[in-house]
Specification:
Blueprint (H helix, E strand, L loop, with lengths): L1 H20 L2 H23 L6 H20 L7 H21 L5 H25 L1 H25 L3 E3 L3 E5 H18 L7 H27 L14 H11 L2 H5 L2
Antiparallel strand pairs: 1-2
Helix pairs in contact: 2-3, 2-5, 4-8, 5-6, 5-9, 6-7, 6-8, 7-8, 8-9
């Protein structure tokens, strides 16, 4: 437990420091590095054995860096269609696959994973371009949700949310996380009942739960507990970003 808390605290400090104080080029490098690691982890979950992981990482990083410069100099309107498709996937298709435990072919898993990582990376770049505070405000939705869902689930959890997919998650944990997100959204959105972003944050929390369950399904099909070993006490990068990957792109649609 202490290892988990120390890792989370250290990662949060690094993230906030980079978010507010790093130059744009360095932020792009951070995003692309994370993207490359996530792609590598996802391919392993999909059933692909990477015989030369360092070479694969380097090639993915170089290609992604070129894409990142294109993202950096494009406008939100150029990516809106991709964000809409991403949100539709998480709202309609992913829940059906989770409920039915659909076993996808490995190349389908690989393509879906990489495709879903792209709008997440776009959102990290474009939201920070608008303001580091805007990105931090939306990222905090997941930190609040995950933290309170974890503790409320441990204290009050009795009714399993999806026992076949993720036995550790409970409805009580979901309720605790959603209550906490509701309070957070009220605090950060003035006139919240009439504020579109208030309801958007609640939707992000729900989609984040779907993203968490979807990655759990993929891991269960792969027969592994964690997507990697990079983060002590947490597993891989995908294990920490599954909710954000699913829901953060929605924040781009909440910006007007």
């Amino acid at each position: 437990m202490s290892e988990r808390i120390w890792t989370a605290s250290f990662a949060a400090l690094l993230f906030v420091g980079a978010l507010f104080f790093s130059p744009n080029l360095f932020w792009l490098v951070i995003v692309i590095t994370g993207f490359s690691v996530c792609v590598q982890e996802w391919l392993k979950l999909s059933g692909y054995l990477l015989t030369h992981p360092n070479l694969f990482f380097s090639l993915t990083f170089i290609v992604s860096l070129g894409l990142a410069f294109f993202i950096r100099h494009s406008k939100l309107e150029h990516w809106r269609w991709l964000i809409y498709l991403d949100v539709l996937f998480w709202i309609f298709l992913a829940p059906i696959w989770i409920a039915r435990g659909v076993l996808l072919r490995r190349w389908v898993k690989a393509c879906i994973g990489i495709t879903l990582l792209l709008p997440f990376s776009v959102s990290l770049v474009l939201l920070r371009d608008l303001s580091p505070w805007i990105l931090l405000r939306y990222m905090a939705v997941f930190w609040v949700s995950d933290t309170f869902a974890y503790f409320s689930g441990r204290i009050f959890g009795h009714h399993k949310l999806a026992p076949q997919t993720s036995p550790g998650k409970t409805w009580e944990g979901v309720a605790g996380g959603m209550i906490a997100v509701t309070i957070y959204a009220i605090i950060v959105t003035p006139q919240f009942l009439m504020n579109f972003q208030f309801y958007g944050m609640l939707a992000m929390a729900v989609i984040g739960i779907i993203g968490d369950l979807f990655e759990s399904m993929i891991k269960r099909q792969a027969g592994v507990k964690d997507s990697g070993r990079l983060l002590p006490g947490h597993g891989g990068i995908l294990d920490r970003l599954d909710s954000q990957i699913a829901a953060l792109p929605l924040a781009l649609l909440l910006i007007r």
